[in-house]
Amino acid sequence: MSHADPGISSFDSSINTTRQEFVAWGGGLYVEPDLKVAFPDGNRDLVLQYVSHNVDGNRLRILLKDISREVYVELQYQVDAATGVLRRSAQVQNRTASSLTIEQVAAGTWNLPRGTDYRLRYLTGRWAGEWSLHEQLIQPGKAILESRRGSTGDQNNPWFAIDRNGSNDQDSGDVWFGALGWSGSWQMSIEQDEIHQIRVTGGPNSFDFGYRLAAGEHLQSTDFYAGYSHDGIGGASRLLHRFEISSIVPHGTDAKLRPVLYNSWEATEFKVDEAGQETLAEKAASIGVERFVVDDGWFGQRASDRAGLGDWYVNPVKFPHGLKPLIDKVHSLGMDFGLWVEPEMVNPDSDLYRKHPDWVLNFTGRPRSEGRNQLMLNLARPDVREYVFQFLDKLLDENDIAFLKWDYNRNWSEPGWPAVAPEDQKKVYINYIQNLYSILEELRAKHPKLEIESCSGGGSRVDLGIMRYTDEVWPSDNTDAFDRLLIQDGFTYAYAPGVMMAWVTDSPTWVNQRSLSLEYRFLSSMQGSLGIGANLNNWKPDDFATAKKMVEQYKRIRQTVQRGSLYRLISPQKGSEQSVTETVSEDQNHAVAFAFLHSSQMLYPFPRIYLRGLRPDAMYRIAALDGKLSADTPAVASGSFWMQNGVDVELRGDFQACAFTLERVER
Ligand code: DGJ
C-alpha cells in the first residue's frame, strides 16, 4: 500500500510539514511525535486520522483512530474563559485484541505561527539555587527541557514562555506560555522545523519509558496547559497566576489566604522536643504568627538524617506524651498546628526498611544508591501506597493537624520494580505519580480542613500537577533574603506569589553569611506567603517589636499580594542593582510596591518607580509601609500620575529596602 504525498519534496512529506495537533510516529514522521507505540507483532507504525468530535460547554473532544488498527486517541481540550488558558490531554485507548507498549505519549503539541525570531524563556536550577530564568533564540532543531529524575526536579521546571525577540518587554508583545501538570519525569520539546514552524510537545519523559497497555485498557496522558498574552511576559505570568489560583489549587478562589506561619527547621534542625517547641510557639504567637509548624526530627529514631524515615511514630524521648500537649499549647496560643513529613522515603536504618527491604525502588542484585542516606519507597506498589496512606490518615485522625509540609529530599535511582513482570516494570514512572496524587486526594477528602505544602529539598517539586493537591509550595532552601529576590522573581514567571512560601530567617544567613536588617528580610518575604524561620530564642526585644509590626502590615496587604496582579517594575535579573515589584488588587483599589537596593554607587539616586496597573482616573493615597518616600511625593494623586510621573524613594547604601502602599480614595 503506498500513496502520493502533497509534501514540498520527497524529503519533506506533508505529515512533517503539517501543523498537527497530535501526531503518532508512523508514516515517515521525523518531528517530535506525541505518541509512539510498539505492537507485539513487531509493527510500530501508527497513523491517526480524525473520526469525530464533540463540544460540551468549554470542553472539546476529538476522536482519532489508526488507519487500520483499533487504536484510538481521544484529544481532550478545556478552556478557561477568564484567562484563555487551555488544558490539553489525550487518552490512548487500546481496543485491539492484544497488548501494546506505549513508548512515548504527550498531552499534545502546541503549534505557533511560522517565524524565525522566537525567543524561549525557561527556568533552571539546583538545590539552594532554584528558579534561574534563561532566554535563548529558538533556532532550527530542538531544545529539550526535561527531568529524568522520577519527579519534577529543579534543573528544569516544566514551564515555557515564547515571545518574539526584540518586540517585547515586560508588559507588551506576543507571548505564548505553558506548563505541564505532571510531577514525574517529564519532557518538553521546543522544535523549529525545516519550514520554520514552532512546535511545543510535552508529557512524561520518553527516556526509559514503556507502558504496556493490555487489550481494552486506556492510558490518560498528563495535562498540558497553555495560553497567550499580548501584554508581554508580565501579562503572561499574570494570566497564569490567575489561572493557578482560580483553577489549579484546592478550593480555587474560595481558598483561605495563606496564614503567617512559623517553622522551626532553621532554629532547631533535628533537635525538636516538647519544651523547646513550646518556647518557640509562645514567641511566635507574640508576633502574630497564625500557624506553628514542627519540621523534621519529631518521629522514629530521627536524631539526624541518618535514621528514622519510614517509622512514623512520635519519638517518645522528645515528646513523652505524644504531640497532644504541644498541639494544645499551640491552639491555646491562637495558632493552628502543622507537621513535617517525608512519606515517600525510608532510611536503611529504620524498622520499616529492616522489615520491608523489597519496598524500595531497586534492581535485583544491584547496589541501591542512597541520597541523604535515604532510599525511595516504590509508591507504585499497592502495599506501599496503602502503608503511606494509612500512616498519614492515622496521624491526622489522632492529632489535630491543620497542615502538612510534605517533603521529598532526593531523586530516583535504580528505578526497578522487581515484583511485577519485566514488561510492566517501567509502568513505575506513571503508577508512582498516580498513586502519589491519589493519596493526596484521598487524604484531603477524608480530612477536608487539611492544608499541604509541597516541598522537595526546596523547590524541586513545583508543577501544576502537584499544585492541584497542595495549597502552597516551598521554592528553595535558600532563605537568604537577597538571593531570594532573584529566586522569587524567577519563580513568579511560572507560579503565583500567593502559593510561594517565603521565610524570614536569621542573619547572617547560613547560606552565604550575608547580614541583612530584619526589615529587609521581612520585605523580601512579604512579596509571597509570609513565614518566619528564624531562631526566635536569639531575638532581642527590638526584633520582636519590628517583627510584630511587619506581621501586622503583612496581614493588611496579603489579600493584594496573594491574589493580586504582579508587575515587575525593575528586574533583579542580570546583576541588577535594584529590584522593584508591585502588586495591584483585583479591584484595582489597592497596590503595594517593594523596592530593594543592592548597593548604591557614585551618588546615583534610586531609579524612579513608575507604577502600573492602576486606574488612570482614580485617586490613590500613597503611604510608606517601611522606609521613606521622597519629601516631594504628594499624599494623593491620580493613577495616571503614579504611573507616568512615578515615585522616588530614599534608598541609599547597601542592602536597603522599602515598601509603600497605594489606596484608592474618593475624589
Ligand atoms: C528540606 C526542606 O526543604 C527543609 O525546609 C527542611 O524541611 C528539611 N528538608 C528537613 O529535613
TrEMBL record:
The keyword Metal-binding does not apply. Residues 12-214 form the Glycosyl hydrolase family 36 N-terminal domain. CDD domains: GH36 (cd14791). Residues 579-662 form the Glycosyl hydrolase family 36 C-terminal domain. Keywords: Glycosidase, Hydrolase. Coiled coil: none annotated. GO terms for molecular function: alpha-galactosidase activity. It comes from Tunturiibacter empetritectus. Substrate binds at residues 127, 295-296, 372, 405-409, 455, 477. GO terms for biological process: carbohydrate catabolic process. Its EC number is 3.2.1.22. It is an enzyme of class 3 (hydrolase). InterPro entries: Aldolase_TIM, Alpga-gal_N_sf, Alpha-glycosidase_related, GH, Glyco_hydro_36, Glyco_hydro_36_C, Glyco_hydro_36_N, Glyco_hydro_b. The active site is at 407 (nucleophile), 477 (proton donor). It catalyses: Hydrolysis of terminal, non-reducing alpha-D-galactose residues in alpha-D-galactosides, including galactose oligosaccharides, galactomannans and galactolipids. This is alpha-galactosidase.
